[in-house]
Amino acid sequence: MSALGMSLRFEEGLGPLLVRPSPRQAMILSVLDVGTFKTCCVIARLRPGAQGAPAHYGSHSVEVLGMGEGPMHGMKNGHLVDLDAAVQSVLQVVRQAESQSQLHIESIILNVACGRPKSQLMTLTKSPRKHSIASDDLEQMFTHAVQHQRASEQVTLHALPLGYAVDGQPGISDPVALRAKTFSCDMHVVRADKDPLRNLMLLAEKCHLDVSALLVSPYVSALSILTAEEAQAGVACIDLGAGTSDLAIFLEGQMIHCACLGMGGHNISLDLAREFGLSLENAERLKVLHGSAITLASDATKSIRLREPVQEEINRARFVEVIERRTDEIMMALRDRLDQAGFAGDVARRIVLTGGTSALPAIADRAQRILGRPVRLAFPRHIKGLGANPGSPSLATATGLLVYPFCARDEIHRQLRPKPERQAGRTTYLSQVAGWLRASF
Fold this sequence. Notes:
The protein is α/β, with parallel strands linked by helices and about 450 residues long. A hairpin with a 3-residue loop joins β1 (about 25-35) and β2. The two termini are about 15 Å apart. Helices cover about 35% and strands about 30% of the residues. Residues about 415-440 have low confidence and may be disordered. The chain has a 6-stranded mixed β-sheet, with helices on both faces. It contains 13 helices and 19 strands.
């Protein structure tokens, strides 16, 4: 989507307009996962005729044609803080993906962990204009729901219908064409602040990329690793990244809550660096080599050679205890988010962990102790061509971005278009944004 088209939708409180793939046609899709310390660009071919994949993969199979991975600079806890550094990081992985696939990227689907994403459950009620419910009635219902966002400077990233009721009768999956006096829709809406999203759009524009969709990170990570049975029964998916820890709760096949926490594996590395006087690079290396989320009895008799600032050995139990403290803090913060959302009981009966930090040994056991429910580790599946490490949990967000277009049909606002009318000669905030975009790129 062009910068001007994007500014039009932002002014109306809407995210980018995403076209869902035809069930009978193949298509090429490009996605960009912008993390705090890692970025990944993937170009994939979506082919009709998926077999053995989860239901939300739709009617297509996904084959990776090119992928670029590299360190991400210029980001902090999911927010852009250094535009020039971020541009160089993104361009590097985009060029890698283009080189592998021999294709040129023009537009991307981009993840969002910034802008303080907030979940809201709402019930919308309306009377159809005629005797039966039309698709226009659904569009008007959602438009009314987002109108108040213009003053609050928020953008709707997701609007997921959870179920419809017709004349008070619940359990309706699709109300279109049904005769009714009134109908209602239970909806999960995810909104985020506009300015951090504008900064992500600016990053894409500086890299000469149009943005097809902005998607909240916990949702797409869950799409790539949850089974249909888990999503139906009730599950909480936690993506443990380096800079953020993301939470998505599913019930009856739909996401009903999400949250982003500004802590992750990088905080563990910082703690190790401060505790033992290490460089951040060496602390990360030692965490990968010797780290664990649970101290074992045998750790008291083991040593770890630090190498810096001098040749020194420390007790491994002491090393792991530092990791335990920060891991517990992250898990307790996530537990608090579950409690605050009101889904700590029967809804989120199981926990699924993914993300790069979930590779820390014994972290599933640690999470189970703190969260008080069964935990399993998960990684992306059913996607061909992921390279030398196809089972890496750090690829959950990138692969989820590839899966999302099959789910876009569930989101009403993906097809809404901004109102075109504006008074001639009047200088509006929209015209100022459009002018700024034209002058900046």
